[in-house]
Amino acid sequence: MANGLARTLVGTRGVINTIETLRELGAPSLGNGCILRAIVASDQGDEAGIMDARSCLERTLAIAPNDPGANAELAIVLLALDSG
Question: Is residue 50 helix, strand or coil?
Fold first, then answer.
């Protein structure tokens, strides 16, 4: 039960990330915002959104090169663009 509740609240499509994603779409930022936008664009198959996410992730990594989330999501984005 706790595992299900945790996924509902903080999973990729959970309540908290959904709220943060809606905020992010209204006022884009770097960092976690880029990651959320990349996930949404990938889920929707939105190539333009994926390209925007790539640029955002690259800018994030220029500021914080060791950000593991941004590095991981950029790898996923690059794979999506390569296979598309």
Answer: helix
CB crowding 6-38: b at 16 or more within 10 Å, else e:
eeeeeeeeeeebeeebeebeeeeebbbbbbbbb
**Domains in the chain: boundaries:** 2-83
3-state secondary structure 54-65: HHHHHHHHHHCC
State how far the alpha carbon of 30 is from the alpha carbons of 4, 7, 25, 38, in Å: 29, 24, 12, 11
In the chain, the N- to C-terminal Cα span, in Å, equals 38
Listed in sequence order, the DSSP H helices in 1-84 are 2-10, 15-26, 32-44, 47-63, 68-83
pLDDT in tens, the chain (84 residues): 655 545 554 555 666 666 666 666 666 668 888 888 898 888 888 899 999 999 999 999 999 999 999 999 999 999 988 875
The tokens describing 75, both together, are: 């790898």
